[in-house]
């Protein structure tokens, strides 16, 4: 997490320590209605113009060409680029958001143009209180190994941290590496202890890094 992101959090936190929780879906709908949040997707290919594309052709965004949802005019001049650049993306309405059966809330949106500040404000309203400590756990997303004894200590420790009131944990949200261990540690802590404070674990990743099966589930909510 960059210093600019941390400053953004500090700028949007309310003065009060706690308050009434606001439902996540209602918060998102309000922002979408007021155009406070916009989505962003790869525009190198359009779902309406992929008839002549080989099925397994992969875009620089990480997805197969046929997995693109963009319906506008594709930026064909960027289709063969070897590296992702901001120009690949285009703003679109926010359509992917909601809450899973396990209680996890999600949204797919752009974080540009002060959207990050709006997101943090929404999370504070949804949680009902501001964070006193933010723990950022990134790295080790794939090739991550740890001895069993150390892994248990890590899971116990992160579970205890997550159970502490007004502590937020930031991860990639992916089911691999450090992020997976954090999820397991938090789940284990909740299962074994009766805590009045619901852990706040926030996963932030690019849409292309999420497994296709997960993207389908999120779109259907």
From TrEMBL:
GO terms for biological process: metal ion transport. This is TRPM SLOG domain-containing protein. It comes from Rotaria magnacalcarata. GO terms for molecular function: monoatomic cation channel activity. One of its GO terms (cellular component) is plasma membrane. Residues 104-218 form the TRPM SLOG domain. Coiled coil: none annotated. InterPro entries: TRPM (IPR050927), TRPM_SLOG (IPR041491). Pfam families: LSDAT_euk. It comes from the Eukaryota.
